[in-house]
Amino acid sequence: MRKIALFGGSFDPIHKGHIEIAKEAVKALCLDEVIFIPSGISPHKAGLTASNEDRYNMVCLALENEEKLSVSDFEIKKETKCYSFETVKEFKKLYPSCELYFIIGDDQYEKFTTWYKWEELLKMCRFVVFTRGGAEIKPPFTEIKIPPIGISSTEIREKIKNGEDVGAKVNEKVLSYIKEKGLYKESLSEIIKKLKGTLKESRFRHTLGVADTAVALAKHYGADTDKAYLAGLLHDSAKNFTDDELFALCDKYNIPLSEDDRKAPPIIHSYVGAAIAEVEYGIEDKEILDAIYYHTTGSEDMSLLSKIIFVSDMTEPGRKDFPGLSEIRRLMYEDIDKALVASMDATISYAKMKGSFLHPDTLKARNFILAKGKK
């Protein structure tokens, strides 16, 4: 008789500890198969941080090269709350001639009598409890002791959110999927809340204005609106630091500074802002980071997103009037390059008026655009 174990959970995300438990079950119980069942709408959990599709896909990736381990989308596909009783009942139908097991942890064992139709469940399959010591497991449950794993999905999500390495705890393909999809990063609401707590009120209003303007321009020019909004939100994340603090942060984040950079301290918040976006907010998209990095000086061969953030910074609705502002606002929906040159002209004029040092990257960027336009 074939022996199959069901292994349910949110797997948000699946990690090496889950795989270790499944393999240990195969060995201890002589199982023919362990079926991972990512939960759908659970009666015990609210607000999973990755979608049903993403969690299912991650389990598939984690099990690609694992013998006797498979995955089912039974609970994922259900449109209503799914109880373990219903899941076991379904698999009893699918495998009528098999001996069925159900894998749980000692934390679930402690709450088992709160499960829906738990007494009937005990008659339908054999429950296997993995313990790390301390819990007293009574019949009819079968106990399998394992060493402390020291891995939890909650911890992994928090580490990813904080930009920490989790490579030792998560399958390489799963980790690549998480990075590609941007899972477990701070939500926009969390980013906005954090910015509101770190920026002065006037700077925070400016930030929201830049983000909204960037989205409008992105829509107009066919750029990615999500990237535009995120870059707009984070472009001035380092604006409230003093010059000394900015120099110290450059050392902390290993940001090289040229002599020209050191002559123009006000522009350094852009460099530090890009580092903060990457390290503290978990942004890995180079296009977003470059748009933040170059939003005060500009650069040669700027991306469309970088141009949008530069112009949005100059033209957001709350920006105080300055010579040339109305012309830039007129140009910004006609020709982004012309609006960018006009913005840089305004920057140059302001530097002349103040008698301050003008970073040469701005002149290089301006000349690059003009030269490109004449070809």
State the fourth-level CATH superfamily of the largest domain.
Hypothetical protein af1432
Question: What structural category arises from helix and sheet content?
Answer: alpha/beta
CATH architecture of the largest domain: Orthogonal Bundle
Assembly classification: single chain
Here the CATH topology of the largest domain equals Hypothetical protein af1432
Would you mind describing this structure in some detail?
This protein has 19 helices and six strands. It has 375 residues and is an alpha/beta fold. It has two domains: 179 residues, Rossmann fold; 187 residues, Hypothetical protein af1432 (Orthogonal Bundle). It has a six-stranded parallel β-sheet with strand order 3-2-1-4-5-6, sandwiched between helices. Helix 2 packs antiparallel against helix 8, helix 4 packs parallel to helix 6 and helix 14 packs antiparallel against helix 15. The radius of gyration is 28 Å and the shape is elongated.
